[in-house]
Amino acid sequence: MIESILVLTGIGLLSSVGLGVAARFFAVAVDPRLEEVLKFMPNVNCGACGNPGCAGWAGSLVAGTGSINACPVTSPEARQSLAKLLDLTVTETDSQEAMVFCQGSAEHVKLRFEYRGVPSCKAANMLGGQLGCRYGCLGFGDCKRACPFDAIVVENGLARVIPERCTSCGKCVAACPRSLISVQPASKQVLVLCRNHDRGKEVTSNCKVGCIACGKCVKACPVEAIELQNNVAVINPEKCIRCGACARVCPTHSIADFAGPHYTARINEHCTGCTLCARVCPSRAITGERKEKHVVDAAQCVRCHKCHDTCNFEAIEMVDEQGVIQIAPRPKKTKQPSAAKESA
User: What ranges in 183-299 are assigned the alpha helix state H?
Assistant: First the structure.
């Protein structure tokens, strides 16, 4: 009995010594900054940064292989603290948010059949979906369950993103089996919220708010920023001036104007006739001779506000349909004194 105890004790002592030696021999040096960096992690482990969780991103930052701008979830304050701690530079980036490119809620779409299977978009999509529209939101909330920030709700069979909560992590994008969700710049835009590629007649028979590729938006756009691709309108964001003209003529309201409100330009008595407004007007709604007061053709104005944003003489105001000023003229631009005059 005593011999067995002594043997077991000896084995334990030898094992502990061996483990101690191995721990020292195989020890991996840990950067002392890592613990401080981990304090600023959002700890949601969404993977949007491309690393296996927040700890992975923290490790890449300390190792010098990661980008300080990689995580879309980290607050600006935490990002600045990380940059100061690691002596990195934060690059200003445009904020982004997820957008569901479908407006086909229950009152707008027809059903092909009553689905009684697993309440999952992925499962329903394997059967072609219960909707008449083969491209629309199935409404079972796969994106909602994937979102770690409770930024998505499903209302009346349609997923909707809550912009204030969205961190643009992209989890919802990966979860949607019909690729209806994209991460977009959060700046105000004009978007075609439909991805149906069927012909117009089939679209109207299944959905009241789908794009029917009628081409009215293409004709209305003053800068040729829209074209029809595979039976759906596509807006080129590089060309779009966010005037909303396309949304105003869309018969099915499949184009959403998030850039508004829009008002008509009106030129007042401060106009100097510099012609700058006429040169930037995409619809040629402004006419007038040089050094004479210009005039806006209200019927031709596309309400893009470009003339207002360009005028340096407090001469252009934006008015509503009743002629009430909604946006006052920009303050008059004054010339800054040159360095030579200041020194004199």
Answer: 200-206, 216-220, 245-249, 276-280
| Domain tally, the chain | 4
Query: pLDDT tens digits for 309-322?
Result: 999 999 999 999 99
Domain stop point among 182, 201, 222: 182
The parent domain of residue 59 ranges over 33-86
Would you say residue 103 lies in a domain? yes
- The pair phi, psi for residue 259, each rounded to 5°, is -90, -10
Q: What is the mean pLDDT of residues 296-303?
A: 95
Q: How far apart are CA 30 and CA 6, in angstroms?
A: 38
pLDDT tops 80 at residue 30 = no
Q: Phi and psi at residue 12, in whole multiples of 5°? A: -65, -40
Answer yes or no: is pLDDT of 94 > 90. no
- Residue 198 sits in the same domain as residue 174: no
Q: What distance in Å separates the CA atoms of residue 135 and residue 122, rounded to the nearest whole number?
A: 13
Question: For residue 68, what pLDDT is reported?
Answer: 87
Residue 63 vs residues 29, 31, 51, 79, 87: alpha-carbon distances, Å: 12, 9, 13, 17, 13
Residue 208 CA to residue 203 CA, distance in Å, equals: 8
Residue 154: predicted pLDDT: 97
Q: Which residues are within 8 A (CB) of 117 and not within 5 positions of it... i.e. 6 or more apart?
A: 123, 124, 127
Q: Is 34 helix (H, G, I), strand (E, B) or coil?
A: helix
**Does residue 130 lie within any of the structural domains?**
yes
User: What is the rounded CA–CA span in Å between residue 277 and residue 318?
Assistant: 13
DSSP letter string, 153-201: EEETTEEEE-TTT-----HHHHH-TT--EEEEESS--EEE-----S-HH
Each residue's pLDDT tens digit, 186-205: 878 999 999 999 999 999 99
Is residue 28 in a domain?
Answer: no
Residue after which a domain boundary falls, among 239, 260, 281:
260
